[in-house]
């Protein structure tokens, strides 16, 4: 905290509107009195006195200071302090735009000037409990009405302005879908994948993503397609991007091209990193991988290895029509990119993508992506595919909550 304030001391002294902050800091009990700060003759000296005091206080007061900056329309300064705090390895708590959005209950403290009064936890005093109840009830009713008219994204953006990815561009983002069906001899084709790709395409359209589709790419063609797609993002006014790859795969997150050669998921991520793809710096990126990550199957009778002689096409086949039946959780449940399976195990075509589309359609306007991924994992864990079990997996490094904010119900 001290290091952050020290680094941005010059900018804060130069720009911070301290008079606007003081009422918020007193309300939040950072200071009991601000007279000694207001006694300073210039705005700059007031800021210096404030920073000097803050450095002696606990971390909780630092975050109240951040909150006060946000509440007084100085979020640009707050964002710089938060990013520096994160850069130094600190964990950033949720920072809201209004700590008193929800009404608080008053506690009766006595009488003032002969009249009963209630003092609220933020220091407000009302002379009549009835006045407090009526006023608060009206405020709460209006707040509920406003929330009813706003999407979940809008509500969360207003509540946590620095902790939510912006998702307001038109289109919301760009998406690339690579779908490999026909492979060289000896590898085995992926019959039925066209249906998965089409279902995914329709979902992305409904989420307001502009889509590029590529089919039957060799490993080198996959690399070129990924690189060109990343380059195409440059200069586009978009808030996110999604890459989906539907193909054969094997251990160590190797994805096969139609020629049997491999591209790794680490290569894919590299093309969209901040250095090679600066347009997407600070913006969310989602990778959807429908591919095997090994040759084991999870079954009701325990794990078994992929039987020698079975082709990848035999293993990754259409089984979605199999009814779900009650069963124990697979060994790989509760393991906290979106992957169709976990390391070492096969993936089943026409299962993961269809279930992903179903879960995203039902929840894209309600929950953020990590929550939706958890719901997807739960759905996948509940399936029994003719005695075989499967477990999807999500991993990532999102730094904010990602609400997809579709333009309409999907």
TrEMBL record:
<dbReference type="InterPro" id="IPR001309">
    <property type="entry name" value="Pept_C14_p20"/>
</dbReference>
<dbReference type="InterPro" id="IPR029030">
    <property type="entry name" value="Caspase-like_dom_sf"/>
</dbReference>
<comment type="similarity">
    <text>Belongs to the peptidase C14A family.</text>
</comment>
<feature type="domain" description="Caspase family p10">
    <location>
        <begin position="325"/>
        <end position="406"/>
    </location>
</feature>
<feature type="compositionally biased region" description="Basic and acidic residues">
    <location>
        <begin position="99"/>
        <end position="111"/>
    </location>
</feature>
<dbReference type="InterPro" id="IPR002138">
    <property type="entry name" value="Pept_C14_p10"/>
</dbReference>
<dbReference type="GO" id="GO:0004197">
    <property type="term" value="F:cysteine-type endopeptidase activity"/>
</dbReference>
<dbReference type="InterPro" id="IPR011029">
    <property type="entry name" value="DEATH-like_dom_sf"/>
</dbReference>
<keyword id="KW-0053">Apoptosis</keyword>
<dbReference type="InterPro" id="IPR002398">
    <property type="entry name" value="Pept_C14"/>
</dbReference>
<keyword id="KW-0788">Thiol protease</keyword>
<dbReference type="InterPro" id="IPR011600">
    <property type="entry name" value="Pept_C14_caspase"/>
</dbReference>
<dbReference type="InterPro" id="IPR001315">
    <property type="entry name" value="CARD"/>
</dbReference>
<dbReference type="GO" id="GO:0006508">
    <property type="term" value="P:proteolysis"/>
</dbReference>
<feature type="domain" description="Caspase family p20">
    <location>
        <begin position="171"/>
        <end position="296"/>
    </location>
</feature>
<dbReference type="Pfam" id="PF00656">
    <property type="entry name" value="Peptidase_C14"/>
</dbReference>
<dbReference type="InterPro" id="IPR015917">
    <property type="entry name" value="Pept_C14A"/>
</dbReference>
<keyword id="KW-0645">Protease</keyword>
<feature type="domain" description="CARD">
    <location>
        <begin position="1"/>
        <end position="84"/>
    </location>
</feature>
<feature type="active site">
    <location>
        <position position="292"/>
    </location>
</feature>
<dbReference type="GO" id="GO:0006915">
    <property type="term" value="P:apoptotic process"/>
</dbReference>
<feature type="active site">
    <location>
        <position position="248"/>
    </location>
</feature>
<feature type="region of interest" description="Disordered">
    <location>
        <begin position="96"/>
        <end position="153"/>
    </location>
</feature>
<keyword id="KW-0378">Hydrolase</keyword>
<dbReference type="Pfam" id="PF00619">
    <property type="entry name" value="CARD"/>
</dbReference>
<dbReference type="GO" id="GO:0042981">
    <property type="term" value="P:regulation of apoptotic process"/>
</dbReference>
<keyword id="KW-0865">Zymogen</keyword>
<protein>
    <recommendedName>
        <fullName>Caspase</fullName>
    </recommendedName>
</protein>
């Amino acid at each position: 905290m001290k290091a952050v304030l020290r680094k941005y001391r010059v900018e804060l002294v130069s720009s911070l509107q301290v008079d606007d902050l003081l009422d918020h800091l007193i309300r939040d009990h950072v200071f009991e009195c601000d007279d000694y700060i207001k006694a300073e003759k210039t705005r700059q000296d007031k800021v210096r006195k404030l920073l000097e005091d803050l450095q002696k206080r606990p971390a909780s007061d630092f975050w109240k200071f951040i909150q006060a900056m946000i509440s007084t329309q100085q979020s640009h300064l707050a964002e710089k302090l938060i990013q520096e705090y994160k850069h130094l390895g600190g964990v950033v708590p949720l920072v809201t735009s209004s700590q008193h959005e929800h009404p608080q209950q008053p506690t009766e403290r006595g009488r003032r000037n002969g009249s009963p009064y209630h003092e609220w936890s933020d220091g407000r005093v009302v002379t009549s409990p009835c006045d407090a109840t009526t006023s608060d009830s009206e405020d709460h009713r209006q707040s509920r009405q406003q929330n009813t008219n706003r999407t979940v994204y809008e509500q969360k953006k207003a509540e946590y302005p620095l902790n939510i990815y912006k998702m307001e561009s038109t289109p919301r983002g760009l998406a690339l879908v690579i779908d490999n069906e026909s492979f060289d001899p000896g590898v085995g084709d992926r019959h039925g994948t066209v249906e998965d790709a089409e279902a995914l395409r329709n979902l992305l359209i409904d989420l307001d993503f502009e889509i590029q589709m590529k089919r039957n790419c060799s490993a080198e063609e996959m690399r070129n397609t990924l690189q060109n797609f990343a380059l195409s993002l440059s200069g586009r006014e978009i808030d996110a991007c999604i890459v989906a790859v539907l193909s054969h795969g094997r251990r160590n997150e190797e994805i096969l091209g139609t020629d049997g050669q491999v591209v790794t998921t680490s290569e894919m991520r590299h093309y969209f990193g901040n250095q090679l793809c600066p347009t997407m710096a600070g913006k969310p990126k989602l990778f959807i991988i429908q591919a095997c990550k090994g040759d084991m199957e999870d079954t009701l009778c325990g794990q078994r290895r992929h039987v020698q002689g079975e082709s990848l096409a035999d293993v990754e086949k259409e089984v979605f029509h199999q009814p779900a039946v009650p069963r124990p959780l697979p060994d790989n449940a509760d393991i906290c990119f979106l992957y169709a399976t976990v390391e070492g195990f096969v993936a089943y075509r026409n299962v993961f993508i269809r279930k992903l589309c179903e879960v995203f359609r039902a929840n894209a306007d309600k929950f953020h992506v990590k929550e939706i991924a958890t719901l997807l994992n739960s759905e996948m864990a509940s399936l029994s595919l003719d005695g075989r079990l499967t477990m999807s997996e999500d991993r990532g490094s999102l730094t904010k909550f990602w609400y997809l904010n579709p333009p309409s119900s999907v």
